[in-house]
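Why show two proteins at once? Because comparison is the fastest way to build intuition. When a single record is shown, students tend to memorize it. When two are placed side by side, the eye starts asking what differs. So, the first record is below.
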Amino acid sequence: MHSERQNDNTGRSCETIKRVFLYASSLFFFMFLCLIWLMIFFPQLIAREEEGEKGVEGWKATRYEIDVTLDPEKQGIYGKVKIDIESEREVYSLRFLLNENLHILGAKLSSGILEYRKAGEVVTVDVDPPIRGKKSITFEIEGKIKIKAGAERPAFAQDSILLLGTDLWYPLSGEGGARSLIKVTLPAGFKVVGPGKMIEGKQVGDRITYTWQNDIPIQFCSIVADRKWVVRSTERGSVRVQTYLYPLEEGEFAERIASSATDIINCFSSLFCPNPFSQISIVELEGISRTRTLNGIILYSPENLIRIFSSEGFDARSIGYLWWGYLIGGEGPGGWQQMQGLGSYAEHLYCEKMGLPATDFMERSRMEYLLLDSKLDRPFAEVGPESPDPLIFGKGSAIMAMLRYVAGDEPFFKAAKLLFKEKIFTRMTLDELRETLEKGTDMDLGRFFRNWIASSGIPELKMEHSVRETYQKDFRVDLKIVQESGIYDLPVEILMAGREGRKVEEVFIDDRENKFMFRYSFRPDNIILDPQHKIFRREPDLKKKSLKLLWKEEIEKAIQEALRMERVKKYDEAGKIYEEALTSVGSVREILYNYARMEHARKNYEKALELYAGAAKAEPLLKEAQKDPLLPWSHIRRGNIYDVMGRRSKALGEYRKALEHPDMMDSKKTAERYIKKPYREE
């Protein structure tokens, strides 16, 4: 019996082994089939997935042909957008960005209708069979524009329209730049500004169609329209400047704006690269608070336009952003912000070339950075759109000034031209910027970028020195420079001055403590570190300078508020603001000049004469008194009033006084013109 049980158990074990073997064989065969399937089909799936991702990165838009109708009454937009694309490999899907309130009514390729889906702002177009090479896709769109959070004004206002490319009013590839042909139809009476050059304006019935052509690859196309503009075109040589200003500002500023813009464009053409813009448009628009540089368009609020072109007489910074922002862009952490810094520094280069004092914006941006809370400071390689403006504009421009100081003028400008030669119409990371600058300057800029880009803060230098007479009857100077915040590689100038001699020494510091010894035949009683303030660093008299800056900000706020009151014809309220400012801070040229300008426009001639006279005698805020353009122009405006009043001899006296001062904002040419021929109000 025991033997029978044993045989039965043995039989069961064999049966179990057979079942396990059959199960394992089946599983192995199934896995083998799966492996064969994966070997055949998985590479295709991977390739297709990769190609699908390349649908976002592996293709580019080369041209937009936009034909839309704008309906201000319904605040709507509808029409067609044709996009030319190029791809070096097969593309299975394409992605575009479009304002979430705009709808796609259809999408088609030359080969037929395409399937698409839209989720929020992302439009995905599936392409089957895949496309390769050069193709065109046409979208039909309609709807209203939803403005992004924090926008200054709606797209459609009572008499104006502002369609920013960043508001995605047309399907946008989101990668790289493209050329464009834009046709906009809207009610007659509107004038329109677009990217590039207007090639046609045609009215049919109560509708007018404008066509704009742009041959410069740009990422965003923006459109601005208004019913009230006075348009003036100025061509000097190869430079065409178009002004779109309101009647109140057109007469006073159009010629000044066109003249200064032409000078700035010619300056940047010689420093960086020839001007590629077929037209640059200077535009005034109500409802915005800050100046914007768009695609060949510079956009000002009325208050900013009056402030900038009354006090400075030019705006090289905004034109600089056309070079450092549109012709060359930045990408990645800090990349776009460094382009903003370069654009700001371009204004310094223009002022330097024209012999003009530094602008208020430059001085203020750097001072605001020096006063910035250390908790908000960060390495420039980490800054983004949310970073404080003083960090972007103050330190950003100073970084380029320091590169020029360290490298020298010739290598610096050689590198700037090389950037545009090799990188024009592209976007650069900070690493690519460094590589190109190294090539242009023929220098290793690794330490410079680590100090100024990869690290927060700026140099803090402390100098200690002693002077003693030697037995050889000369004077020995022992000097130590301590770097108290980071270790920078810096050339440093030191002024040695005494009653019997003067000499400027240049030393190089690259350590925490740096010691030097000098000998002179004269006794240097006055030893000054960095006498011309070439190094962007923290200095001892910062508090004194900051008080002046804060005082200036309060005055500017008062002027801005008065200008707003003036534009809505609340002249009494504007006058009160000016009077309160004068009572609070005393006679300041900028306040008196703007107050006089308002009374002049109101034909309150006696009051205006008094205020212009006060402006001529008063001190400016941050400028040297003799380099302030409001000084000669105060005399010119007094002369204009005397001419209108028929008091020619007094008018001539004022014009001659204007000629006694340095030429600012064409003051000499204007004064000479009115000496030859009396001023007449239009």
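Second record. Ask yourself what differs from the first in the token line.
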Amino acid sequence: MSTAPKSVVSQGRPANTFEGRIVSLSLVAALVAWCGQPPALAVPPAAEDHSAGIEVLARGPVHEAFAGTVTYDPEPGIVVPGRPPDPIEELPPEQRPAGDNVEWIPGYWAWDDEGEDFLWVSGLWRNLPPGRQWVSGYWAASRQGAQWISGYWADAQLTEAEYLPEPPESVETGPNVAAPSADHLWLPGGWVWQNNRYGWRPGFWSPVQPNWVWIPAHYLWAPRGYVYVDGYWDYALDHRGILFAPVSFSERVYAQRGFSYTPATVIDLGVFVNHLFLRPNYGHYYYGDYYGANYASVGFYPSYSFHSGRLGYDPIYARQRWNHRQDDDWERRVQADYQHRRDHEDARPPRTFAAQRELARKGLAEQDQGRVFARPLEQFTKARDNPIQFQPLDDEDRQRFGRVGRDVRTHREERQKLEAQPVDPAAERPAREIKPARVRLPRSPFVAKPAEQLGREQALPPRHQAPEVDPRVQPKPRQPRGGPLARGNPTATTPQASPQARPGAQARPTPQAQPQAQPRGRSGAQPRGAAAGQPRGAAQPQAEPPQAEQAKPRGKPPAASSEKSPAAAPAKSPGRSQDKPRPKPDKE
């Protein structure tokens, strides 16, 4: 899977052999588990040639179970011109964080716009938010390929999923009264479904809680309707879990019989927060080098722009801003740092682990730790400055975590069948007359223990006493732009013109700097999905979800340099012999 953008030049480089050894060891482990004894012949050294088809990335999508976007006006997920392969066999590392509430959540395929292919978002060790259950996201069939349906953390006691009509456009404008103290954060308001209609619940100030982050109530789009996720407490980033680097695989590697993979490269969360982007139409955070104009054209927002532009609420940025509340110049420096990296390619972080190691070889990594994301897990577990305690997996852990990949696939399939059901004809009536659809929620493989069972050190803060619904605020009419009632085709991820400003929002010029490729070590890799023309290994869903019209992003990304934007006509990548234009949505 190449990730070289069509508009930039990509130069190849052999991927690191460390991950190749991980694959070799995983193959041996798989044989041991299958046969009950070690294989007669060990995997030969030549098996490390797998590394030529594996590249560990130092940027990419963040696993949505670690952090997901909170968008004021949810929109249908991106549609991509291809369907993902079957999930790979992913085994957890032999070291895990200590704790009774820590689980291994496997990875999944994510779309790489620049490479027009899928990359693997590695699994993670997750300290489950108390009292929540994980509902996995999935790729649903679309007329153009596949559409992403986001996952979410539901209440652990929830046994039914409720699908609602599209909520009205948000009227959240930020604080309307002064903060009671410097130790308060503003939590946004939102629409709530009551008495068969939507009512507006205003935002409010809330005291900050050490080690905890409040995730506000929000909606997510699904093929059958909109899902309401109530607000909840989650761990602060440094207590949330272990995030592993995404990986680019060559099909000839993962398609081998008996192949398995174990992540071994950890993302440094202290650096991660300084290079964070949000992509609301995909429901994902991204980290790393996404400073070029091509990314803005497909809906990437630097965290400060997303938060201040009233597109949604970023709990990570809000907490960072509170952490620097005594520094009046902090937000200005954050924006200045973004602009500097946008305009100076040499200031951007490396895109691959191999490129980062090259920085270290030249002695540059020590001079600029702010660009060093990735660390080998073995090194991370032994670091003196690491507050996380690790413990080896025992036999019970191996058996339990070895089954979890199968359980996740079953859960995704059940959710997909559930949401592919035809929408009730009553949904054609006005929203105030629609009766929400309630269906049984498939049991999640990841259900957190109640807070009272986790010990005093993990006791949850009290839930917020949110204001009552304000009957004076009435929904504003707007044309349907997504969801099961919309007509038209979803929008593929071809770079388009810059997002349009929302009425009343502060306009921000579009960045113009070109994104540049870093070395990609994937010689011989063949693209799949859109680049190859036919999807491979994708299971066919029971029913194709209704199509939805993609909304235009509101609010503009931050200020631009003077370079010409490549968004209108990206150039072909010299490293791709048969670049094809991406399919455009059909016109009805």
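One difference worth noting in the second protein: The first helix runs from residue 17 to 35.
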